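Input (structure):
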């Protein structure tokens, strides 16, 4: 028999820091549209950069996040990007899923002859 623990005890994460989901029940988030997203670092550690004199200086991890964000449309034919901002421990961005009549395979990558694998710069751990 499995004993279920409150999230804080099971993960060490304070429940009060989690927001209620604002996702619409039954809404298909894979359909075309513009989506505002936020992605946080593990345990909200400031891995992505530091603020100096009112502006953010990206760390190597922050630069990698920026490169990956900008590369999304090169890997997913149905994706276009709008504004994004990288903060020390999270990123906000607007991603557009476009219905261009090309079907995507089970991986979400379009089965489109124009899709190309574009390698990103090599990653070296900190």
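Output (sequence):
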């Amino acid at each position: 028999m499995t004993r279920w623990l409150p999230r804080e005890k099971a993960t060490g994460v304070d429940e009060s820091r989690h927001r209620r989901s604002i996702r619409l029940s039954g809404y298909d988030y894979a359909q075309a549209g513009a989506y505002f997203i936020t992605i946080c670092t593990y345990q909200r550690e400031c891995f992505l950069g530091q603020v100096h004199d009112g502006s953010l200086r990206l760390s190597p991890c922050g630069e990698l996040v920026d490169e990956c964000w900008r590369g999304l449309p090169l890997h997913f034919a149905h994706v276009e990007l709008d504004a994004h901002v990288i903060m020390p421990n999270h990123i906000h961005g607007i991603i557009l899923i476009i219905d261009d009549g090309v079907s995507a395979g089970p991986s979400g990558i379009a089965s489109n002859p124009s899709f190309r694998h574009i390698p990103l710069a090599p990653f070296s751990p900190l």
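Notes: The chain has a mean pLDDT of 77. The longest strand covers residues 33-40.
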